[in-house]
């Protein structure tokens, strides 16, 4: 069956390993089909679910659209992240979904640049700005390392015509960018507020 491997970010003919039909009641509309596939490219498992639905042509009950349960392809964007940065991340995700991996890296670098700006840090270049985020205590050593690596990778993506990014690299770049913002805006801010309450 032609199925999307969210790990490889492509549709491919995957081998069926097993199937399971579940019935929540005697009514056929309550049954669902679970299938386990093996991706022929990365060999990872893919678990899908199909629930019963009336098809559009002859209104017969049949198994409907395939929903991928595993691996989870959804990128979780914390609503607490400022809108401008979320918009930038959404665009990075769009690039990734369209298999534009160089564009993904460039968009992630842009997001980090926007993050510095919104945190009120503007130095003569991005390297200095990221350093300032660390000295100002906005990011810790670990996040500094990630942000700096994203900057370097983004530079390569923007200026080196020879460079190519794999789906795995691109996915990691995106995940690290999301993690930096998620950590800063949800956990760090929350922890700072918590500490402030404790000191009162
Ligand atoms: Zn795969």
What's the short story on this structure?
With 200 residues, this protein is of the alpha+beta class. It has five helices and seven strands.
Could you describe the 3D structure shown?
The chain is an alpha+beta fold. The chain folds into 2 domains: 2-70, no CATH class; 83-199, Up-down Bundle (Four Helix Bundle (Hemerythrin (Met), subunit A)). The protein is 48% helix and 21% strand. It has 5 helices and 7 strands. The chain has helices at 83-97, 101-118, 126-135, 141-159, 167-199; strands spanning 2-5, 10-13, 15-23, 31-38, 45-54, 61-63, 67-70. Strands 3, 4, 5, 6 and 7 form a 5-stranded antiparallel beta sheet that branches. Strands 1-2 form a two-stranded antiparallel sheet. α1 packs antiparallel against α5 (167-199), α2 (101-118) crosses α4 and α4 packs antiparallel against α5 (167-199). The protein is elongated. The mean pLDDT is 90. The structure holds zinc ion. Zinc ion (ZN) binds at residues 5, 7-8, 39, 41-42, 44. This is DUF4145 domain-containing protein. It comes from Zobellia barbeyronii. Residues 91-176 form the DUF4145 domain. Pfam families: DUF4145 (PF13643). InterPro entries: DUF4145.
């Amino acid at each position: 069956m032609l199925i999307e491997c969210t790990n490889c970010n492509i549709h491919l003919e995957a081998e069926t390993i097993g199937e399971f039909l579940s019935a929540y009641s005697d009514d056929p509309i309550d049954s669902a089909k679970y299938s386990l596939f093996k991706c022929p490219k990365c060999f990872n498992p893919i678990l899908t679910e199909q629930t019963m639905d009336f098809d559009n042509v002859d209104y017969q009950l049949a198994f409907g659209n395939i929903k991928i349960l595993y691996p989870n392809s959804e990128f979780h964007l914390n609503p607490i992240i400022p809108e401008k940065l979320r918009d930038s991340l959404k665009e990075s995700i769009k690039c990734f979904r369209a298999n534009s991996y160089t564009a993904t890296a460039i968009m992630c670098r842009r997001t980090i640049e926007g993050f510095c700006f919104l945190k009120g840090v503007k130095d003569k270049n991005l390297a200095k700005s990221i350093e300032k985020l660390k000295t100002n205590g906005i990011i810790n050593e670990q996040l500094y390392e990630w942000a700096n690596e994203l900057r370097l990778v983004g530079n390569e993506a923007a200026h080196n015509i020879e460079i190519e990014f794999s789906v795995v690299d691109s996915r990691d770049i995106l995940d690290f960018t999301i993690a930096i913002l998620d950590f800063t805006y949800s956990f760090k801010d929350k922890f700072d507020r918590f500490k402030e309450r404790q000191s009162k």
